[in-house]
């Protein structure tokens, strides 16, 4: 008997509407041998086959839909088609860079699979039981369709635990990649460390926003907080910033930042790098009455889940309020949240509250901001309308009036 799950009548609508996650509470009945990563048939409450999913016994997301076509088997050919479609999409939409998110999980119909391309190196994350189950099939397909030199696994994200999977890193294809893969973005050269860098090595999702900084930075004094390897800092230097002060608590990331500043032959006297806590640094700069013409706030995920929201809102408010009090008239703030649990509406509300608080604290009382633009990730991070959870990166470009 093929392993199967049957959905509850009053809870099935979201899956029928193409939301790829089947929560444990949505399942009325199990049949057959359902194991970790097993492909299961999915039936609606009327016992009609609606598609197939990957089963994940340890997660509240008990299954992730591979397909809503009852006729479509989940096999080698299925993954070949999905991967080819994802790569074709990137060829059409992403130009002039060799740092590209080739596969973005659910948005490409491949839940739990993330593949980032850094020149001839691919870095993969298998974040769901289903993706893990098909790893040996996926890797050769990726190798042959991209012609890459090596494929490296960085399945060391915490979400693996919820799937009952342990952390796994290492080479899957070809030789060990360099710890300094050179990529180009916005005519800037960046060094990516697939082995020990954050996530897969680089925050590809911020490409368009780094471009925006490049375009707006001329003659500005810039503060880049949570700078990682200096993605925004280098964009600001390229754009002609007067001075760029960057802060991150990762010394290793800052070493890469310094190296690539040299590599791009930017004037090193215009850039300073601080291995410090960004909250403390923001406060200290404010106390010292420092002023900036552009401030970037790109913190880590303060709200990993809805349970962390209250604390996260407080943290977002704190850094934004402090930044608002230090930005010059006509100055810009690019502020981000990569917390999936916080949607754009809540983020805007948080920022608007921060601006009120900042104005109240300011003696002059003339602190006023306008939103020039809402910001999001690049086109290689597409978002499904039926899957709001995939829309994790949001930001605002604020101008002090
Ligand atoms: N803007 C970066 C990505 C930022 S990711 C880019 O475009 O590449 C978030 C960064 O925040 C990480 O580099 C992490 O080291 C840093 N970080 C986390 N907590 C911090 C803290 N309290 N103070 C300073 N940096 C912090």
| Count of individual beta strands | 20
What's the tally of helices?
11
Relevant CATH superfamily of the largest domain: Vaccinia Virus protein VP39
CATH architecture of the largest domain, by name, is 3-Layer(aba) Sandwich
Please state the structural category. Answer: alpha/beta
Instruction: Identify the CATH class of the largest domain.
Output: Alpha Beta
Largest sheet: 7 strands, mixed
Instruction: Please give the share of residues in helix.
Output: 25-40%
What is the CA-based Rg, rounded?
23 Å
How confident is the prediction overall: mean pLDDT? Answer: 97
What would the CATH topology of the largest domain be?
Rossmann fold
Strand content: 25-35%
Q: Classify the oligomer.
A: single chain
Spatial strand sequence of the major β-sheet? 16-15-14-17-18-20-19
What is the number of domains? 3
Small molecules bound in the structure, each named once:
S-adenosyl-L-homocysteine
Distance between the termini: 67 Å
């Amino acid at each position: 008997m093929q392993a199967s799950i049957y959905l509850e009548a009053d809870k099935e609508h979201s899956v029928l509407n193409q939301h790829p996650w089947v929560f444990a509470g949505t399942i009325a009945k199990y049949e057959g041998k359902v194991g970790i990563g097993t492909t299961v048939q999915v039936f609606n409450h009327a016992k009609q086959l609606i598609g197939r999913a990957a089963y994940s016994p340890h997660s509240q997301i008990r299954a992730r839909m591979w397909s809503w076509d009852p006729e479509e088997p989940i096999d080698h050919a299925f993954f070949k088609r999905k991967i080819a479609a994802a790569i074709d999409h990137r060829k059409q939409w992403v130009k002039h860079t060799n740092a590209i998110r080739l596969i973005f999980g659910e948005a490409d119909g491949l839940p739990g699979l993330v593949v980032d391309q850094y020149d001839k190196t691919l870095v993969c994350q298998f974040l769901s039981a289903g993706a893990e189950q098909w790893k040996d099939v996926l890797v050769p397909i990726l190798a042959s369709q991209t012609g890459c030199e090596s494929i490296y696994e960085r399945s060391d994200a915490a979400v693996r635990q919820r799937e009952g999977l342990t952390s796994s890193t290492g080479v899957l294809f070809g030789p060990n990649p360099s710890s300094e893969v050179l990529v180009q973005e916005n005519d800037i050269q960046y060094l990516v460390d697939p082995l020990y860098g954050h996530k897969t090595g680089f925050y590809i999702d911020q490409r368009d926003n780094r471009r925006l900084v490049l375009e707006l930075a001329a003659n500005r004094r810039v503060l880049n907080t949570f700078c990682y390897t200096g993605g925004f800092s280098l964009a600001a230097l390229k754009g002609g910033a007067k001075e760029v002060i960057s802060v991150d608590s990762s010394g290793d990331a800052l070493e890469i930042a310094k190296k690539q500043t040299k590599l791009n032959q930017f004037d090193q006297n215009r850039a300073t790098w601080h291995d410090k806590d960004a909250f403390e640094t923001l406060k200290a700069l404010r106390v010292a009455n420092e002023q900036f013409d552009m401030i970037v706030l790109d913190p880590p995920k303060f709200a990993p889940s809805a349970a962390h929201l209250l604390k996260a809102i407080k943290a977002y408010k704190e850094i934004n309020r402090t930044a608002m009090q230090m930005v010059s008239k006509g100055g810009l703030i690019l502020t981000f949240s990569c917390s999936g649990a916080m949607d754009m509406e809540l983020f805007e509300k948080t920022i608007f509250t921060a601006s009120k608080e900042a104005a109240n604290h300011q003696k002059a009382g003339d602190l006023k901001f306008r939103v020039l633009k809402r910001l999001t990730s690049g086109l290689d991070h597409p978002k499904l309308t039926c899957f709001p959870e995939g829309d994790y990166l949001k930001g605002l470009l604020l101008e002090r009036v």
